[in-house]
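Students often ask why inverse folding is considered easier than folding. One informal answer: many sequences map to the same fold, so there is more than one right answer. In these notes we will look at a single instance of the problem. The structure comes first.
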C-alpha cells in the first residue's frame, strides 16, 4: 500500500511576513517581519499504519501541525460538525460527487471528488473529505463501499445525506487538498473502494428536465474548509529522531519531533528524501538558535569560569537487560570544568547536581567514530566515508562519536545530522582548551621505582615529577621534549623525553591508579598548548569537518 503521494508535488516553502501583535513594536520603529516556513506532510500512525495529510507551519519558536476541518462561518449557531444536505439529482451529472473508502478498509465512505457547478458543489455545504453518515435516513457509517454506492444510485431524484468532515482521512485514499474538480465525463464504471465511484451514481432519472437546485436543510448557513491548528510543539530544548524508538532502523523520509515535556508531533512523513531533509534542517536550525539564545541568558547568571559552552540532545548506545544494544536520548552539557550527561535538560540550579555522569573536561577525549551510510542518505548530508564493505552495519547509526573517560570506559553517542558532528567536536575542543588554560595545571599521585611521587602537567612549564613528601623536583621536561610514550593499557606508562643537554632519550616509567584519565589530561594540555600558538590547529585537527566537507 502506498504511503507517498502520487498527485502533484505540493511540498513547498513559503515565507510569510507576519504582522507584529499590537503593542509589540515601539512607536517609530519599523515592524520586524518573522519568517514562517509552511508546507505539507503526512502524519503517520505506526499502530494503524495509516497516514493523513497535514500542513506544517514552522516559526522560530514552534512547529505547528494543522489539520483540515469544515467550520460554519456564518448563518448558523451549530457547533456540531454534522451537516445534512438535500441533493437534487441532475439528469446529466447526477449528484456531482464521487466517493471512496468503506468498511472493508476500516474507514467510512468519504467524498473524494466534487464536480464544479454540479448539485453537490452548489450546496456549498459538502467538501472533499466529508464522511457519509446517512443516506435518506439510513445509517451507513459501517457500510461497505458497494452498499453506499447502491443506496446513492437508487435513492431517487432527491437524496438527503448527512456528513461530517473526517480530519484524519487515511492518505491511501489519495484525496486532493485543492478545490472542486471541473466537470467531467460521467460515463458508467464499476465501483471500487480505492477508486472514485461517482461515474455510476446517476441512478434512474424519471424525467430529463432539470430539477430544482440542491439546497442545505439549514438555510443561509455557510461553511468553509480551513487548516486548523491541531498541535503546536515548542522548539526550545526539543529533540528530533529519524529512527524507530531505541533502534538503528532509519525511518524512510520521516522524523519525529519531541518537545521538552515529551509531547510528540507523531511521525511526519515526506514525499522525498530532499523534502524530509529540508524540513529536518530547518527545524534543527531553529532548535539550535533557541538553544544558543537560552545559553546566553543562563550564562548571565554564572561567572566567566563557569560558562556553558554547549548543550544539546544526543542518543547514547546502551546495553539492555537482555544483552542487546539500544539507543536512549541523553542531554549533554559542557559547562565550566565539567562535562555533564543528563536524562533531561537541567531547568533549575538543583538539576546540575542530578546529572547521570559528571566528568572533568581535562580527562575526557572526544573521538569521531566511523560514519556508516544509512539506508536513506539525505541530500544535505552526503556523508560517504571510506569504510570496509565487509564489516557488519548492525547496531550502528550513521553519525556517531565516543567520549573516552577514565578507567578505560567510554560513552558512545549518535546525532541526527552529520553537520552536528563538527559543531560538537569544536565545542569539546573549545571547552577543554579553556579549562586547561583556566586551571593551569593538574597533579596526580603515582609511583615511580616503588616510591610515591607526584606528577604534574603544567600549561606553561610542561611535565614535572616531584617527591610527595619533600616536594623536591625529581625531573622536569617541556612539552616539546616529549618524543613518545607507551603504556600497558592498565596502570603503567613509559614517557620518552629528549634530554636538553645530551640529546639522548630518557625513559620515565610511572604507575597511576587511573592511567586513562592521566593520558587524556596529557593529550588535552599538549593540544591546548599547540592551539594557543596555532589558531588554525582546531580546524586542521577536526576529523568531523573532514567527513562533512571532503566528500
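Output (designed amino acids):
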Amino acid at each position: 500500500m502506498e504511503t507517498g503521494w502520487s498527485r502533484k508535488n505540493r511540498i513547498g516553502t513559503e515565507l510569510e511576513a507576519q504582522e507584529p501583535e499590537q503593542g509589540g513594536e515601539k512607536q517609530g520603529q519599523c515592524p520586524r517581519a518573522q519568517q514562517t516556513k509552511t508546507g505539507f506532510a503526512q502524519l503517520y500512525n505506526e499502530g494503524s499504519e495509516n497516514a493523513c495529510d497535514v500542513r506544517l507551519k514552522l516559526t522560530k519558536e514552534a512547529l505547528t501541525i494543522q489539520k483540515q476541518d469544515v467550520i460554519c462561518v456564518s448563518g448558523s449557531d451549530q457547533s456540531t460538525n454534522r451537516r445534512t444536505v438535500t441533493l437534487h439529482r441532475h439528469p446529466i451529472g447526477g449528484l456531482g460527487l464521487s466517493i471512496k473508502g468503506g468498511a472493508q478498509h476500516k474507514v467510512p465512505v468519504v467524498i473524494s471528488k466534487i464536480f464544479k457547478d454540479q448539485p453537490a458543489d452548489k450546496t456549498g455545504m459538502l467538501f472533499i473529505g466529508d464522511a457519509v453518515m446517512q443516506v435518506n435516513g439510513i445509517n451507513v457509517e459501517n457500510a461497505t463501499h458497494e452498499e453506499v454506492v447502491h443506496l446513492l444510485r437508487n435513492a431517487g431524484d432527491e437524496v438527503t445525506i448527512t456528513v461530517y468532515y473526517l480530519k484524519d482521512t487515511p492518505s491511501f485514499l489519495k484525496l486532493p487538498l485543492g478545490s472542486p474538480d471541473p466537470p467531467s465525463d460521467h460515463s458508467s464504471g464499476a465501483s471500487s473502494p480505492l477508486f472514485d465511484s461517482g461515474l455510476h451514481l446517476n441512478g434512474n432519472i424519471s424525467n430529463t428536465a432539470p430539477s430544482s437546485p440542491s439546497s442545505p436543510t439549514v438555510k443561509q448557513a455557510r461553511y468553509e474548509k480551513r487548516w486548523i491548528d491541531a498541535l503546536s510543539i515548542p522548539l526550545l530544548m526539543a529533540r528530533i529522531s529519524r529512527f524507530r524508538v531505541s533502534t538503528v532502523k532509519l525511518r524512510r523520509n520521516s522524523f519525529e519531533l519531541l518537545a521538552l515535556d515529551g509531547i510528540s508531533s507523531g511521525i511526519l512523513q515526506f514525499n522525498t528524501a530532499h523534502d524530509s531533509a529540508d524540513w529536518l534542517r530547518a527545524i534543527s536550525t531553529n532548535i539550535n538558535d533557541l538553544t544558543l539564545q537560552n545559553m546566553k541568558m543562563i550564562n548571565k547568571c554564572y561567572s566567566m569560569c563557569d560558562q556553558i559552552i554547549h548543550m544539546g540532545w544526543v542518543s547514547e548506545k546502551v546495553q539492555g537487560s537482555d544483552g542487546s544494544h539500544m539507543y536512549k536520548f541523553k542531554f549533554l552539557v559542557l559547562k565550566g570544568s565539567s562535562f555533564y550527561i543528563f536524562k533531561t535538560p537541567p531547568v533549575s540550579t538543583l538539576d546540575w547536581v542530578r546529572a547521570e555522569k559528571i566528568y572533568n573536561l581535562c580527562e575526557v577525549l572526544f573521538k569521531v567514530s566511523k560514519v556508516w551510510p544509512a539506508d536513506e542518505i539525505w541530500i544535505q548530508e552526503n556523508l560517504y566515508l571510506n569504510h570496509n564493505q565487509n564489516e557488519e552495519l548492525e547496531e550502528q547509526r550513521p553519525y556517531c562519536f565516543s567520549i573516552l573517560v577514565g578507567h578505560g570506559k567510554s560513552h558512545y553517542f549518535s546525532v541526527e545530522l552529520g553537520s552536528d558532528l563538527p559543531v560538537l567536536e569544536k565545542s569539546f575542543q573549545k571547552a577543554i582548551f579553556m579549562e586547561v588554560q583556566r586551571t593551569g595545571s593538574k597533579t596526580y599521585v603515582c609511583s615511580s621505582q616503588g616510591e610515591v611521587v607526584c606528577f604534574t602537567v603544567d600549561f606553561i612549564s610542561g611535565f614535572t615529577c616531584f617527591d610527595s613528601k619533600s616536594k623536591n623536583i625529581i625531573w622536569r621536561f617541556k612539552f616539546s621534549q616529549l618524543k613518545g610514550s607507551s603504556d600497558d593499557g592498565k596502570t603503567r606508562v613509559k614517557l620518552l623525553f629528549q634530554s636538553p643537554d645530551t640529546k639522548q632519550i630518557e625513559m620515565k616509567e610511572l604507575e597511576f591508579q587511573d592511567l586513562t584519565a592521566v593520558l587524556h589530561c596529557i593529550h588535552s594540555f599538549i593540544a591546548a598548548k599547540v592551539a594557543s600558538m596555532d589558531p588554525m590547529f582546531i580546524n586542521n585537527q577536526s576529523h568531523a569537518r573532514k567527513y562533512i566537507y571532503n566528500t
